[in-house]
Amino acid sequence: MQISVAELTFDVTVDGPQDGRPVLLLHGFPETGRSWDAVRENLVRAGHRVIVPDQRGYSPGARPSGVEAYGMRPIVSDAIGVLDALDISTVDVVGHDWGANVAWCLGTWHPERVRSLTAVAVPHPLAFGWAFRNDSDQQERSAYILLFWKEGKAEQVLLEDGARRLRRMLTGLPADAVEHYVAVLSEPGALTATLNWYRAMSRQEVADMPPVAVPTTYVWSTEDLAVGQAAAQKCGEFVDATYRFVILDGVSHWIPEHAPDQLTAAILDRISST
Known about the structure:
By secondary structure, the chain is of the alpha/beta class. It has helices at 37-45, 72-85, 98-109, 125-134, 136-141, 144-148, 153-169, 175-185, 190-199, 229-234, 255-258, 260-272, and strands at residues 2-5, 8-15, 22-26, 49-53, 91-96, 114-120, 216-223, 243-252. The longest helix has 17 residues, at 153-169.
């Protein structure tokens, strides 16, 4: 279905019983809501109503121009707008990669709307920021961000040679999923819009974020090439509520696709205890 929020239109999958406890699943880069398919199906079988938007930059009707349009404030407002359109007052929020950043901010800025928070792969923004500044391992892992900040250059590098480098980022995912993601980001303006999430990083309103105060689970995997142990272990310092740190051994960064059952178990454990 499509949902309009202000002047933007989002592609949103809504699944499960109308009276099920709602769960909002937020995807990251360079994926779409499709990345949640297996987890969504698991949650529906458990009786939940599941909402999965293709976020700003990924939905064709939600690609505003300008880096400033991709800060966390407007992106979080998108999520609130989707919930409002569906008449959902409170929700369990789950986010992966950049979607985890949105989830952290949603839980911090709108705690009255969030029953629980499960962040996947990416820790609290202040934990990641600390590691980005102080941990050499994290600095090496995050070197790709320096490329993503270069407007025009990053788009060229990722899409040239049949999107070879973009495809390489998605190594290990099913071929049909990779083709879907590449097709979406090859649409006019799409890759620039999604990379603007990175380019807005220095302008984001997260420097003075207080600790999140909703029940939280953070799921990290030992084979994540993007997020190292230092950032992951720091995460709990920025949660002022019930907190669980779940480590998945031998799993890559693409947790929703590579370990959907383990991730679903962590999500349901968080939801059932809230």
